[in-house]
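Retro notes, item 3 of 5
We never archived the inputs for the adenosine-5'-diphosphate complex last cycle. Fixing that now. Sequence and ligand:
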Amino acid sequence: MNEKRYILALDQGTTSSRSIIFDHDGSMKGIAQMEFPQIYPTPGWVEHDPKEIWRTQFETAKQALENAEIAPSQIAAIGITNQRETTILWDKNTGEPVCNAIVWQCRRTADAAAKLAEDPQISRMITEKTGLKPDAYFSATKIQWIFDNIPGVRQRAEKGEILFGTVDCYLLWQLTGVHATDVTNASRTLLFNIHRMDWDEELLKLFDIPRSVLPEVKPSIGHFGNTKVELFGCTIPVTGIAGDQHAALFGQACFSAGDAKNTYGTGCFLMMNTGDRPVTSKNGLVTTVAWSRGDKVTYALEGSVFIGGAVLQWLRDELKIITSAPEADIIAATETNGGVYFVPAFTGLGAPYWDMYARGTITGLTRGTTRANIIRAALESIAFQTNDLLTAMQEDTGTPFSILKVDGGASRSDVILQLQSDLLGITVDRPVNTETTAQGAAFMAGLGVGLWKDESEISAIRRSAKTFTPAMNEMSRSEMIRGWKHAVGQTLYR
Ligand code: ADP
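Structure as it came back at the time:
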C-alpha cells in the first residue's frame, strides 16, 4: 500500500483561504479555514494583501494536516484552486509585492475596459482570441493600471525584476519558487490565446505588458514544481492547478461534452463542458478553457446569475418575512407561487438578457397573494434564471445537455432543484460532497501524481446524494415559463 495516499487541496477564495485533505477514496480527512481582510480604498475598489493570502493559506495547510493527524510526508501531492483574475505583481528577488493585489471585483479599470469595448474591431479581436469580453474583471487592465500608477514598476519590469501572477501563480511561487500558472488561470487574463494556447503578442502589445513578467503556462494536470523543504520539512510536488469554477466542474466529474455544473451561492456560476471545441456564444456567455492534460485541451462555456441565494438574504434582511434561507425552503415546499413571479434584477440582468439597467420586480400580485407565494416565487427565481442561462448555452452549443450537477449553499433546497429539473427536462444531481472546488483541485493533483489512474476512476468516487428527475407536465411547464418571461419583460429598461 502506498504510504503517500493523501492529497492536500489549497482552496484560495475571495474572502477566505481553506485547505482540505482528501484520501484515496475522495473523503475529506481534515479541513482548516481562515478569513483575511478585504481592503476597500475607495468605493468600487477591492484589494487584498498578497502576504495575507499566502500567510492564511500556509497556516490553514498546516492546521488541516494537524486536524487530520497526517504528516506532510504522507501527502502525495498538492492541488491549488483559487479566486480567478485577481492580479499580483512582485519583486523577483525579494518576493515583495509592488502593491496590494487588485481583486477580480475591483472596478478601478472599468473606464479603460469600456473604451476597448467601444471599439468594435478591438473588441472582436479580443473575443476571438481569448473567448472573453473586454471587462475590468479580467487581469490585463489591472496589470496595466499597476504599470501606469505605481512608480518605477515598469522600469523594473523592463529590467526583468518583476513577476506577474494570478493567485495560483503567486502561491506556487511561494511554495516552490517556480513562476508558472495553469491554462485555466491564464485564460482569464485577456492575454492568453485559447486556440493557440499561448500568451498572445498582439494582446501584450495592446495592453503594453512586457512578456518578461508573465509566468510559464502549463497544463492544469501535471508537475508544476516541488515545495521548498523548509515549508513542510519535506518536498511535496504540486501537480494540479485550476481556477475555482474550473476545479468545481472537474470535482463534479463533468468530463463529457454536455455535462454542466451550477454553483448556487450568493450568485450562481454555471459552466458546461463543450469538449475539445471552443464554442463562441451568441448570447453573451464566455468561452473558457475547462482544463488541460498533456496536449488534450477541454473547453467550456461559462455564465453567471448575479442574484441567486442573495434573493433570500434580501427577504430575510430587508423584507424580514423569513428568518433564514432554510425556513424559506420549508415554507415553499408545500406552496405554489399562486401566479406570482419575482425577478431579482437588483443589479441588472446578465445572459441572455444583458440589461444592466433592468431592476427587480414582483408580478401577479392579487388580494389573495400570501407571504408563502412570494417566498416560493423568490426561490423559483433562482431556478428560472439558471434555466435561462442553460437554455442559452444549449442554443450556443447545439448539443442537448445530459445532466446538471449542483453545489453551493442554495443547492440544499429541494424546491429549487426539483423545479430546475422540471424546467430543463433533465436530471439534476446533488453530490454527497459539496466541497467540489477543493475536491476538483485534489482530483487534478491526484491524477497528476498517479494516485488515480484516469477520469473513470474519479467518476466512480463522486457520489450522488440525491437526484431530481422531471415530474412536471408540459402544460404547467410552458405556463410557468410564460409567466416568468412576462415578468422579465417588466424589468427590462431597454
Ligand atoms: P457563497 O459561496 O456565494 O458565499 P454559499 O455557497 O455559502 O455562497 O451559499 C450561500 C447562499 O445559499 C445564501 O445566499 C443563502 O441564501 C443560500 N442558502 C443557504 N441555505 C439554503 C437553503 N436551505 N435553501 C435555499 N437557499 C439556501
